[in-house]
Design goal:
By secondary structure, the chain is α/β, with parallel strands linked by helices. The chain has twelve helices and eleven strands. Strand 3, helix 1 and strand 4 form a beta-alpha-beta unit. The longest helix is centred in the middle third of the chain and has 21 residues. The radius of gyration is 20 Å and the shape is globular. It binds nicotinamide-adenine-dinucleotide and zinc ion.
Length: 342
């Protein structure tokens, strides 16, 4: 097992990579503890969970809502949760985002920890202290920055993941390499086949290195004023795809990263050969790399996005593999560039 500690103004978080669900008990305080999870986790892991009250929420993005929070608060009241209660979110990004938010606002904040169970949440969602829910169709509109006390990343739990879900997680790993580490990127180019076969040693290495990259960024910019924006590489496009099609987050990020790399080339920042490396690595992980005919609709969706800042947007681009920059573009510049890619 390897540990990474994230120190931020809102707290210290310990990420335990390679720890097992079976050891969860030893991280829990003496006070009352309550688990928040979903039906899929219960189906596979109920017998391995400590004997504690369980609040079960629905699966998928449709459950990341105020309605689910309402249900959780009702259950917390039923179990007489008080300020000393400790909440444990066990699941993927959805469970962790919702459980973290519920714990953060119930009675002005309970302490909480996560067992992160998807590849995407182990390398990204459960690290960094962003918690929240969607609102009126807008992703992550309501939420807080608050660090979990611990995050257990048990790679053996990834065996029960749906194959498509597993592959989607690699998009965020490629992202970490692309924006911050040519070493990780090259490692992925070398060992992608072993990673896809869920070779434990390779997976643990990859998870550790991706978390380390995110942890270092979050430590200097927890609230996303500058450096943390780089983690949004590929995401401006990805969120637009997610709003108009039923695509997994990681898949949308994969297509978004190829587009952002092509834009970087168009703007004279990135070499053509590096655009090809980004595309080829994502293809090696069997992820989608072409937006096809939804690109135009995606750009219109981006223009309508209420969360955008005026007429410009911050687009994360690459200078080289392992080095990202944040570039301000107007929508008309973006439109011209995107249509030129076709
Ligand atoms: N907070 C952040 O910083 C951050 C970062 C990235 C993504 N996210 C959020 O994460 C969410 C996506 O998370 P996700 O990709 O983990 O999806 P998810 O939480 O929906 O999990 C995917 C599916 O796999 C099931 N599952 C989870 N673990 C399993 C296991 N070990 N075995 C079998 N089935 C399992 C779940 O029940 C679900 O059906 C999005 O809402 C996204 O916005 C948050
Ligand atoms: Zn993401």
């Amino acid at each position: 097992m390897r540990t990474i500690e994230i120190n931020t103004p809102s707290g210290i978080s310990k990420i335990l990579i390679g720890e097992r669900l079976g050891n969860l008990r030893q991280y829990l305080p003496e006070t009352r503890c309550i688990i928040i999870t979903d039906a899929n986790i219960l189906r596979y892991y109920r017998r391995e969970l400590p004997d504690l009250p369980i609040i079960t929420i629905g699966t998928g993005e449709k459950s990341k809502t105020l309605k689910t929070l309402d249900y959780i608060f009702e259950q917390l009241l039923k179990y007489e949760a008080d300020r000393s209660t400790f909440v444990i979110g066990i699941g993927g990004g959805i469970v962790c985002d919702v459980a973290g938010f519920a714990a953060s606002v119930y009675m002005r904040g309970l302490r909480f920890g996560f067992v992160s169970t998807t590849l995407l949440s182990q390398v990204d969602a459960s690290v960094g202290g962003k918690n929240g829910v969607n609102y009126k169709g807008y992703k992550n509109m309501l939420g807080v920055f608050n660090q979990p006390v611990f995050v257990i990343c048990d790679p053996t739990m990834l065996q029960t993941l749906d194959e498509r879900e597993f592959k989607a997680g690699f998009a965020e790993i490629v992202k970490a390499g692309a924006i911050k580490s040519d070493t990780l990127f090259a490692y992925l180019e070398k060992y992608y086949a072993e990673a896809l076969k869920a070779n434990h040693e390779v997976l643990e290495d990859i998870i550790y290195n991706s978390v380390k990259i995110k942890a270092d960024i979050v430590a200097v910019d927890e609230k996303e004023k500058g450096e943390r924006r780089k983690l949004n590489f590929g995401h401006t496009f990805a969120h637009a795809f997610e709003s108009i099609t039923r695509i997994r987050h990681g898949e949308a990020v994969s297509i978004g990263m190829v587009l952002a790399s092509q834009l970087s080339y168009k703007l004279g920042l990135l070499a053509q050969a590096d655009v090809k490396r980004v595309r080829s690595l994502l293809e090696a992980f069997q992820l989608p790399v072409d937006a096809g005919n939804i690109l135009k609709r995606a750009v219109s969706a981006m223009k309508k996005d209420k969360k955008r800042e005026g007429d410009t947007l911050h687009m994360v681009l690459l200078k080289t593999i392992g080095e990202a920059i944040v570039h301000q573009l107007t929508f008309s510049q973006l439109e011209a560039l995107v249509y030129d890619l076709r």
